[in-house]
From TrEMBL:
One of its GO terms (biological process) is carbohydrate transport. This is MFS transporter. InterPro entries: MFS_2, MFS_trans_sf, Na/Gal_symport. Keywords: Membrane, Transmembrane, Transmembrane helix. The chain crosses the membrane at residues 36-59, 80-99, 111-131, 151-172, 184-207, 228-250, 270-291, 298-318, 330-350, 362-388, 408-430. It holds the Pfam family MFS_2. GO terms for molecular function: symporter activity. The keyword Coiled coil does not apply. Belongs to the sodium:galactoside symporter (TC 2.A.2) family. GO terms for cellular component: plasma membrane. It comes from Echinimonas agarilytica. It comes from the Bacteria. CDD domains: MFS_MelB_like (cd17332). The keyword Transmembrane applies.
């Protein structure tokens, strides 16, 4: 096989299946965990927000360590695939345990939530950082990487589509005639975790690592980190990831509250999630077309600005205008579709540029440090939602006061729209254009040793 590494349809689908699995976990947590903790498990919104914030401080240490160790892993299966295989089963089990509701005291419940949540996030890191880095060693061709990233995020948001479309229905079905919501959550999450584990294993079985590089005998952690944090491209992408995930976490964390207390019908959230995910998938399908015609940097600035305008629009939609909500969500989601595809291609490009410039193989370290920004954004956004609801006097399962309703509206409109806009504007300063990366790719192709296709 040539250095360009053309990938088969099965391998692209196999790789994408890993992010379908990831979103059966992560999107479920993102949409339902705060609501579950507050309205089902019985933890206050403020306590849950504090837990989200404090437990993520550990990621500052664990995420780069996972990236460094993954970059140095040597096995017959490659560097990154063993992590996906070995971590998938513990992750599935722990993800299920997060939604167990033991009949304990309030203090014991909070301790249980802290332990299970922290462990699940750690195991998610153990699997997802090597999984993300895997794209960079499956092929070195920029066009193939864009296609592979498109497959990944098509599967990723297909997972989000499934979560948004069927979770509420499954919870209601599994709750039984007695309306045992806790049981409904447990059985639904248990089903998701089994499917996710199987899909991670499928990813391991159908992918190959082809692009290799020498591994230094010395673990130069400080040098590798310095090579990143002094790189303007890394700084731009890190800050952009932080703001982007703040926008995602704030909005997703507030949407169920929005439909429950502002619109007045939580069941309408399912169709809202479904049509939004379908529009997002349509945007992903268009990514290859637009990425061949526009510089990725400029395209990202334009797309994020359009998303922000759509989010701002939600502030002005009355609660009885459900059709308008659906329409604005479809347009905004369509423009959002190509964004993660393009961003993850930039991550792989940045890893190649760093190797080309410094000689350091830091593919997983790139993704792990970006994961810090992503998780920090999720934590800040998720915590902001909880703290704002608590400060506004939110009371679980009760009609809300005007201040709480206003906070909920802001949390699905102006606040996430501002974060989305900032995430795009910072991309203006990203320096590595398509022309630069063509030179990098050609030079690296001469340096690298390639594992023969077998």
């Amino acid at each position: 096989m040539s250095q360009q590494h053309k990938l088969s349809f099965l391998e692209k689908v196999g790789y994408g299946s890993g992010d379908f699995a990831a979103n059966l976990l992560f999107h479920t947590w993102n949409l339902f965990l705060l609501k579950f903790y507050v309205d089902v498990f019985g933890i206050s919104a403020t306590a849950a927000a504090t837990m989200f914030a404090v437990t993520r401080i550990l990621d500052i240490v664990t995420d780069p360590l996972v990236g460094i160790f993954a970059d140095r892993t040597q096995s017959k299966w490659g560097r990154y695939r063993p992590w996906v295989l070995m971590g998938s089963i513990p992750l599935g089990i722990t993800g299920y345990l997060m939604f167990i509701t033991p009949d304990w005291s309030s203090e014991s419940k909070l301790i249980y939530a802290w332990v299970s949540y922290s462990l699940a996030m750690l195991l998610y890191t153990v699997v997802q950082i090597p999984y993300s880095a895997l794209m960079g060693v499956m092929t070195s061709d920029c066009t193939e990487r864009t296609q592979l990233s498109s497959y990944r995020f098509f599967c990723s948001f297909s997972g989000q589509l499934v979560v948004g479309a069927v979770t509420l229905w499954l919870i209601g079905t599994f709750s039984g005639s007695e309306g045992n919501i806790a049981q409904g959550y447990q059985l639904t999450i248990g089903l998701f975790m089994v499917v996710a584990t199987c899909l991670y294993i499928f990813t391991f079985m159908t992918t190959k690592e082809r692009v290799s590089g020498a591994i230094s005998d010395k673990v130069d952690i400080a040098g590798n980190l310095k090579a990143l944090v002094t790189n303007i491209g890394w700084i731009v992408l890190f800050v952009s990831a932080l703001f982007n995930l703040m926008h995602v976490a704030v909005r997703n964390g507030a949407l169920l509250f929005y439909f429950d207390y502002y619109v007045g019908d939580q069941s309408k959230a399912a169709l809202f999630f479904t049509v939004g995910s379908l529009a997002f998938l349509a945007g992903i399908v268009c990514t290859n077309y637009v990425s061949k015609r526009f510089e990725k940097r400029n395209l990202l600035v334009c797309l994020t600005s359009c998303v922000a305008l759509g989010l701002f629009g939600f502030y002005f939609i009355p609660p009885d205008q459900y059709q308008t909500m659906l329409a604005v969500n479809v347009v905004s989601s369509f423009f959002a579709g190509p964004i993660p595809v393009l961003v993850y291609v930039l991550y792989a490009d940045l890893a190649d540029y760093t190797e080309w410039k410094t000689g350091r193989k830091v593919m997983a370290l790139i993704y792990s440090t970006m994961m810090i920004g992503i998780k920090a954004g999720l934590v800040i956004g998720g915590s902001l939602t909880g703290y704002m609801l608590g400060a506004a006097g939110y009371e679980a399962n009760q009609p809300q006061n005007n201040q709480a309703l206003e906070s909920i509206i802001l949390l699905v409109s102006i606040i996430p729209g501002t974060f989305a806009l900032l995430s795009g504007l910072i991309i203006i300063f990203y320096p590595y254009t398509h022309a630069v990366m063509e030179t990098v790719e050609e030079d690296l192709a001469k340096r690298r040793k390639t594992i023969p296709n077998s």
